[in-house]
Design a protein that fits this description.
By secondary structure, this protein is α/β, with parallel strands linked by helices. The protein has 2 domains: 308 residues, Aminopeptidase (3-Layer(aba) Sandwich); 118 residues, Aminopeptidase i, Domain 2 (Roll). Helix content is 31%, strand content 23%. It is built from 13 helices and 20 strands. The longest helix has 30 residues. The radius of gyration is 27 Å and the shape is globular.
């Protein structure tokens, strides 16, 4: 029996069943293709810095122009103009890209997809050096709400940003340069305690103290003393010199071994390293999995999956200036840092980055016209894109019986009347209409009444900008684990949905303005009904 026949239902193969089977098979193939591209992005983007670097590289390759927040966007000759495509970064961990429609007029809206570049992880503390029981350890701080027990017994590497002093710069002067580093080999490990030493783990549960029981192991002190100290008999003159330099550079803050590893990776001397922001990261790359290759197994799906889909759909919606010829709005994406810890930072969604962007573009395009910024904000629409909770086959009771998103079911619209999500009937209907016009499926999610609800950048940006917002996401399992899981079809479906949103939303949005509708016609007569009470 062919795959097409297996997908068809009933004994008779109807033309509709064949068409549905062909469509499902085509989606399966496209889903795997899109998922492979997603994995290429995730496997490079170990940290928000690397995610922004990779996004910048792709935008430049697609013809977007990098601009700086420190430079004027409108002077004698405007640098932001209709038909143009631009991007900028903030802190190298947040990136905003936008394409201005050729028919943009002052007061027209931004049509945005917002996501985030950060994920729960371990970050190195300011003083990293730690020695315990004959081991060289690394001091780390938990970032976000991770499932930390999943980090035990994993092969861990280091990645992030390092500030180095350029050669020839005086010690007290300038000459600092940012370098990204990615040590993608097993350097660290957090070993689990054997069951023989915690016999009650299955009854009491695994409850490690994250200060005392969660430090990654870098090396044994005896091997470090033998191989990486200036006085070691096995050390070559060059390695002895490097070890001495690393010891001097680290002082009491960092182990000479760590600085030597960083310096070798960057091709600099240990003394050149001024400071760093490093993340501990799982070295196992993301892969396709499942019997049919229908799953994505990877770290950081929350939320690099939505970041990738937003980025790629924006790029593909406007491959050149001609693609913006009929666009009346501004197509934009914003990939923020610090969502996992509340978004309250200069580069987080709670900061001014998106309002600054809209304000500057609206002002530049209007020549200072009164109310242009405010009208643009009110005309704008945000898709807050963050991963959603798929129904878990082993914990189905954790979902509301009537709100159970499934893998391969399309984007999930998230609802919460207590404003943990910013979706309302208008924003949901407009987003669903985009899907309906292209035959794309959608799903609905609302949390159980007896469980707390998470949140996203949606309510934060909606309240800061005053714009309409819908919260959506690809459904996934194992959220905030070191290895997460989603379906391949949903990557393709999310891409299709966002691509259609960018291309068509400005025209669709013009068809509905709930604040300008005429009052409903009141028919009939309202008569007071006697209450029948005896009043004294």
């Amino acid at each position: 029996m062919s795959k097409r026949q297996k997908l068809s239902t009933g004994t008779a193969t109807t033309p509709e069943a064949v068409a549905n089977a062909d469509s499902a098979l085509a989606l399966h193939a496209r889903g795997k293709e899109h998922a492979e591209k997603l994995l290429a992005f995730i496997n490079y983007a170990w940290t928000p810095f690397h995610a922004v670097e990779e996004a910048s590289r792709r935008l430049i390759a697609a013809g977007f122009t990098p601009i700086s927040e420190r430079e004027p966007w409108y002077a004698v000759k405007p640098s932001v103009k209709p038909g143009g495509r631009y991007f900028f970064t903030r802190n190298m961990s947040t990136i905003v890209a936008f394409a201005v429609g050729a028919k943009f007029q002052p007061g027209n809206g931004f049509y945005m997809v917002g996501a985030h570049t950060d994920s729960p992880c371990l970050k190195l503390k300011p003083v990293t050096a730690s020695n315990k029981s004959g081991y060289n350890m690394i001091n780390v701080e938990t970032y976000g709400g991770g499932l930390w027990y999943t980090w035990y017994d994993r092969d861990l590497g280091l990645a992030g940003r390092v500030l180095v002093r350029e050669e020839g710069a005086p010690a007290g002067g300038a000459g600092l340069k940012q370098r990204l580093v990615k040590m993608d080999r097993p350097l660290l490990r957090i070993p689990m305690l054997a069951i023989h030493l915690q016999r009650d783990i299955h009854t009491a549960g695994f409850k490690p103290n994250l200060q005392s029981n969660f430090a990654p192991m870098l090396a044994t002190a005896v091997k470090t003393a033998l191989l990486d100290t200036p006085s070691s008999p096995s050390a070559s003159p060059s390695s002895a010199s490097a070890a001495a330099a690393a010891a001097a550079a680290g002082g009491n803050k960092h182990s000479p071994l760590l600085l030597s590893l960083l310096a070798a990776e960057l091709g600099v001397t240990p003394e050149a390293i001024v400071d760093f922001e490093l993340h501990v990261v799982d070295t196992q790359p993301g892969v396709l999995g499942g019997a049919h290759g229908e799953f994505v197994f990877a770290g950081r799906l929350d939320n690099l999956a939505m970041s990738y889909v937003a980025l790629q759909s924006l790029i593909d919606s406007c491959p050149d200036e001609a693609a913006l010829a009929e666009e009346t709005g501004v197509r934009a994406i914003a990939l923020f840092d610090h969502e996992e810890v509340g978004s309250e930072s200069a580069q987080g969604a709670g900061g001014p980055v998106m309002r600054d962007t809209i304000t500057r573009v609206a002002a530049a395009m209007s020549g200072g016209q009164e109310g242009a910024v405010e009208r643009t904000l009110r005309s704008s629409f945000l898709v807050s894109a963050d991963m959603a909770h798929a129904l878990h086959p082993n914990y189905a009771d954790k979902h509301d019986p009537d709100h159970q998103p499934r893998m391969h079911g399309g984007l999930v619209l998230k609802h919460n009347n207590n404003q943990r999500y910013a979706t309302n009937s208008v924003s949901a209907s407009l987003f669903r209409e985009v899907a309906r016009r292209h035959g794309l499926p959608c799903q609905e999610f609302s949390v159980r009444n007896d469980m707390p609800c998470g949140s996203t950048i949606g309510p934060i940006l909606s309240s800061n900008l005053g714009c309409r917002t819908v919260d959506v996401g690809i459904s996934q399992l194992s959220m905030h684990s070191i290895r997460e899981q989603c379906g391949t079809d949903d990557v393709a479906l999310a891409y299709d949905h966002f691509l259609a949103f960018f291309k068509e939303f400005s025209a669709l949005d013009a068809s509905l303005d709930v604040d300008s509708l005429p009052p409903a016609a009141i028919q009939g007569t309202i008569a007071d009904t006697p209450c029948c009470h005896v009043h004294h």
